[in-house]
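We treat protein structure as text, and this decision shapes the records that our systems exchange. The remainder of this section carries one protein's record, kept here as part of the documentation:
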Amino acid sequence: MPLDMIRHRLLENWQTVPVYNTHCHHLPDQEMQSLTLSRLLQQSYVGWMASLSDVHDREARRRFFDDFRCNSYSFWLFQAIEALYPQEHPLNADSWEDYDRAIRLAHETETHHLDLLRDRCRYQAVILDQYRDPGSDNGHPEIFHPTFRCDAFFSGYDRGARDHDGVSPYDVLGLSSDLSLDEYLAAIRLTITQARDSHHAVAIKVAMAYERDLLFLPPDRTKAERAFGQTDAALQDVRAFHDLLMDELMSIAADLRLPVQIHTGLGQLDGTAAMNLRPLISRHQNVRFDLFHGSFPWTDDILALAHVYQNVYIDLCWLPIISPARAIQFIREATEVSDARRIVWGCDTWTSEESYGALLAVRHCLAAALAEQVASGYYDITEAERIGCRILGSNTRQLMNLN
């Protein structure tokens, strides 16, 4: 069977597959209901890469499309917009108003953003990282299952500090900052336990790669105690506090049987390659580690970790829209060095439109990668279909205990 025909058959097969999505930052209802084309771009990764100075200036729009249409974030978001809001012409500087009008009109229906997730994306469950309100399900427990974002807790040694998203650990805990270190750690354990029991949190999330490296060593309690409560603590003592907190989070995860999702790769870049997590993973082999983003650009790191440690899961989230070319190579290698049960996917987006674009991207990458394996005789097309279904669905359902 020709390669193009194999890819087409795989894509057709996955159109109707129920999807379980490991990761999103979906905006609350009130923010989705005021969506425009301009705001949709701003609330996407396109907005990370480019700013459109004046949406009412056609020449400015033309320069924007000329400069950024080739970017992968733009490509997949534009593909989604054109599919969801079809107009006479593709999205460009001249058709801007047509798409903007269609988006505004669609979002006048309050449930439109949820309908897209359920009906177009076919999501059965989406793991929500609402980082400004850890543990939230956006008021929609029928589709969103929280992962509990723990970054703020790493700032807790300084009673006035906040994390990189502006969140205070003491606001999350609902407590004053007048706590001992033991009381602080106990409050974190209680809060996460309550989130699991009351709000059905299914995972713990750490995205400290935006603030520091990912090397967490065995904790030095004395140094951690020295940092706690100090605004001007020495760096080595702050790192000891981080080490102690990270080990406590691993203990909580093990006790509550929650997987730990960790952002790897892009971020502050210094020391954020996934291999820096090896000492932590080695110390906590009773914890399931859901490692994000393929550790891009250091994708070999996660492949090596997954090969050595059976408690490491390869999460493709974000990678297919960062670089489809790298994602295709990575998927092929991941199936070779790990197995069919420890590869999962999430959209890692803020809006339904970009989530749909991310889904189109991962389907494309899966089809391209697995079709090559079929064409080479590595396995047959039925096996490729099954592997794709597992990556898009059942693997996440099992990892997050969503049965």
In short: The two ends are 36 Å apart (CA to CA). The first strand starts at residue 19 and ends at 24. The domain at 112-399 is CATH 3.20.20.140 (TIM Barrel). The mean pLDDT is 96.
